[in-house]
Amino acid sequence: MGRPAGPSQLEGNSMLRVLLRVLLIVMAAAAAVYGGTAAVMAHSEPESSNPPIGGTATETPTQVEVIFTQELVRQGDDSALLVVDADGASVAAGTAEIDDADRTVMRVPLIPDLPNGTYTVLWSSLSSQDGHPTTGSFIFTVAADEVVTPTAEAAPAATDEPATTEEASPEATEGAAGPSPTSTAVVESETDDDDGGIPAWVIVIAVVGIVVVGAGAFGASRMLRSG
Length: 227
Description:
Elements (H helix, E strand, L loop, with lengths): L6 H35 L4 E5 L5 E2 L5 E6 L11 E5 L12 E2 L6 E5 L7 E10 L6 E10 L8 H8 L1 H18 L3 H16 L3 H27 L1
Parallel strand pairs: 2-8
Antiparallel strand pairs: 1-3, 3-6, 4-7, 5-6, 7-8
C-alpha cells in the first residue's frame, strides 16, 4: 500500500491546476487578439465586379463597377481603376469614382461601343480601416452580339419600285399601240361613206350597156323600115 499524499504534494497539485487554467486563459486571449488583428490587417480587395471578374459580358458594358471588401478612401491615386485592352491602351472614358452612398463601390466609365475582346482592370485601393494601399488586377471578356447593317438586303428592296414601273410600261405601250377612239371613228366614218356611194365602174358599165342597147334598138328599127 502507498503512502497517503502529504500536505506538500497536495499543494503542488493545486498549483499545477492553477497554472494550467492560467495558460488556457492566456491562449484564448491571444487567439482573440490575433483574430481581431488579422481581421484588421485584411486589406480592401475586390469582392465582385460588373462585368464579372474573369467572366464574359454578353452586352457591351458602359462602365466597370468593382465592389471591395472594405470601405475605400480617396487619397491621391491610392483608390483607382484603370481598364486597358489587349494592346495596353486605355479604354476608360474618365477617372474612377467612389460611390458616396456605398464606399465599398468604385466605378469607372468606358468608351462608347467597346469592341469585343479581353480587357484588364488594374485596381488600387486604400482601406478606410487599416489605411494600407493594395493593388491588383483581373480580366473580363466582352462578347456582345454584333449588329449587322442590312446594306446588302436593302439593295434589292430599292429596285422593287422601278420593277413596278416596268410592269406598268407594257400597259402604257399597249395603250399607245392601239388606235385612239378618234382614229377609229374616222376610219368607220370613211367606210360608211364608201358603202353608201355608187362605185365609178358600175356607172361606166351602165352607160356602156345603155349605149349598146340603144344602138341595137336603132339598128333593128332601120331593118324593119327597109323591109
